[in-house]
Amino acid sequence: MLRRPLPLAILIFVLAEALFLIRLSVPHQFVFDEVHYVPAARALIALSGPTNIEHPLLGKSLIALGMLIFGDTPLGWRFMSTLAGSVTLVSMFATTWLITGRLSPSLIAAALTLLSFTLYVQARIAMLDGFMLAFLASAIAMIAWTLRAGGWWRWSTAAVLLGLAVGCKWLAAPYVAFAGAAFVICKLGDQRRFPGLPIWPALLVLGSVSGFAYLLTFAPAFFYTAEPLTLARLIPFQLEMYQRQTQVLPAHAYQSDWWSWPLLIRPIWYLYEPVDGAQRGILLLGNPAIMWSGLVAVAACWGGWIRHGSPRLFAAAALWTGSLGIWAVIPKSLGFYYYYFPSSIFIVLPIVLVLDHWRTRLRGADLVLLGIALALAVYFFPLLSAQALPDATAFRRWMWFSSWV
């Protein structure tokens, strides 16, 4: 039993942050959607007026904060993303510890999260998805803590974190409903869970507090020099955002269907061009060892829940399944692999819970998986970190399938 996880969690955070910061300024130009979000952050710093209105403000405000600290430089653009990545990693460690109470699966969860590839790439780019996931993962850890210890302040904190996640990207909104459903299912299954929290008051707090936290993220817009937001326009403005979110977009070379993401059929290149004196590339691709074994683990979790009624196996399977399933109903005209980012992290939980639940039968499997995942991380690292490549055709060395090109 790990009785004092905080010192270890702090160490994990520091080590992850150090890793994410290495060569963070390479490349010294916009990468992928930084072309949208860095100018939007500049507009927030200047309070010049609404920019990139299809997304809420919080993620762009955090990018702006990094720029205020370190300047309008690649380090300034991306620094806050590194913190978000480190928070996500620690949250996965904390959630696993709260579920299992054991050191080994908690460390494995942290290691697999770090080796997922997707966390490393997203922690080093000024995009909104990393901030959203940091708040989501923190909220999940807080909910897991509330499940064991109760307390209105823990539940309210989880609600705030969920609201802030929505304040980064609307993709987080379904997770508020997931949290409410999980609370009701757990509470009805055993009244000792979430001690001291009755169902209806808890749901009311979840909805109202998360909604209020979300609306607060629009505070900077009230101070724009052009077209400032007003209380009367706050709600109608949400409709404008929805219209932007659901507009039909032209076809894109790297678009892909949601069902293909878990299979790694079509990853996405964030960068592949000569920059900073060399040919460089950044490929957003999940670690095949983790992504594919994770699918087996999800199936095992569902099967284990059906056979044994294990609530933690159900929770892990349902979280990943729900995180992917929302894309089957979200009215987006185009899909891209980076939408799978939350799922690519949440898939770690089914893996570690399967390894823990059947640890006698699967003895040593965790080390084998970690070894393969680490070897693949070393192999793919040049395409994850924008290392200098020999020439423009060097990418072929890492292309396992033609659909990856």
Automatic annotation (TrEMBL):
<keyword id="KW-0328">Glycosyltransferase</keyword>
<feature type="domain" description="Protein O-mannosyl-transferase C-terminal four TM">
    <location>
        <begin position="232"/>
        <end position="303"/>
    </location>
</feature>
<protein>
    <recommendedName>
        <fullName>Polyprenol-phosphate-mannose--protein mannosyltransferase</fullName>
        <ecNumber>2.4.1.-</ecNumber>
    </recommendedName>
</protein>
<keyword id="KW-1133">Transmembrane helix</keyword>
<keyword id="KW-1003">Cell membrane</keyword>
<feature type="transmembrane region" description="Helical">
    <location>
        <begin position="336"/>
        <end position="355"/>
    </location>
</feature>
<dbReference type="InterPro" id="IPR032421">
    <property type="entry name" value="PMT_4TMC"/>
</dbReference>
<dbReference type="GO" id="GO:0004169">
    <property type="term" value="F:dolichyl-phosphate-mannose-protein mannosyltransferase activity"/>
</dbReference>
<feature type="transmembrane region" description="Helical">
    <location>
        <begin position="367"/>
        <end position="389"/>
    </location>
</feature>
<feature type="transmembrane region" description="Helical">
    <location>
        <begin position="197"/>
        <end position="224"/>
    </location>
</feature>
<comment type="similarity">
    <text>Belongs to the glycosyltransferase 39 family.</text>
</comment>
<feature type="transmembrane region" description="Helical">
    <location>
        <begin position="159"/>
        <end position="185"/>
    </location>
</feature>
<comment type="pathway">
    <text>Protein modification; protein glycosylation.</text>
</comment>
<keyword id="KW-0812">Transmembrane</keyword>
<dbReference type="InterPro" id="IPR027005">
    <property type="entry name" value="PMT-like"/>
</dbReference>
<keyword id="KW-0808">Transferase</keyword>
<feature type="transmembrane region" description="Helical">
    <location>
        <begin position="313"/>
        <end position="330"/>
    </location>
</feature>
<dbReference type="Pfam" id="PF16192">
    <property type="entry name" value="PMT_4TMC"/>
</dbReference>
<dbReference type="GO" id="GO:0005886">
    <property type="term" value="C:plasma membrane"/>
</dbReference>
<dbReference type="Pfam" id="PF13231">
    <property type="entry name" value="PMT_2"/>
</dbReference>
<feature type="transmembrane region" description="Helical">
    <location>
        <begin position="106"/>
        <end position="123"/>
    </location>
</feature>
<dbReference type="InterPro" id="IPR038731">
    <property type="entry name" value="RgtA/B/C-like"/>
</dbReference>
<feature type="transmembrane region" description="Helical">
    <location>
        <begin position="289"/>
        <end position="306"/>
    </location>
</feature>
<feature type="domain" description="Glycosyltransferase RgtA/B/C/D-like">
    <location>
        <begin position="55"/>
        <end position="192"/>
    </location>
</feature>
<keyword id="KW-0472">Membrane</keyword>
<feature type="transmembrane region" description="Helical">
    <location>
        <begin position="130"/>
        <end position="147"/>
    </location>
</feature>
<comment type="function">
    <text>Protein O-mannosyltransferase that catalyzes the transfer of a single mannose residue from a polyprenol phospho-mannosyl lipidic donor to the hydroxyl group of selected serine and threonine residues in acceptor proteins.</text>
</comment>
